[in-house]
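Structure request: Trefoil factor 3, Saimiri boliviensis boliviensis.
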Amino acid sequence: MKRVPSCVPEPTVVIMARALCLLGLVLALVFTSSVEEYVGLSANQCAVPAKDRVDCGYPQVTSEQCNNRGCCFDSSIPEVPWCFKPLQETECTF
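Returned structure:
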């Protein structure tokens, strides 16, 4: 009698596939939510203390929309503007 191959994957294969999917999901979330990009701005310009932030956006503004306005976006601190005006870099002239 011939043995017919089973279409049901082995438990270790299922576990590994789930682990890889979970890892991919976690990495995608980390890179999309924690990376604060400052397009055309330096990180120093966007190092504005929460109490000094001047709102530059509107409700539900995305980081891309905020950056397109020339503003900084940082959603890590609740109840303060997430889209805010950058600090102006000054040049020393003698």
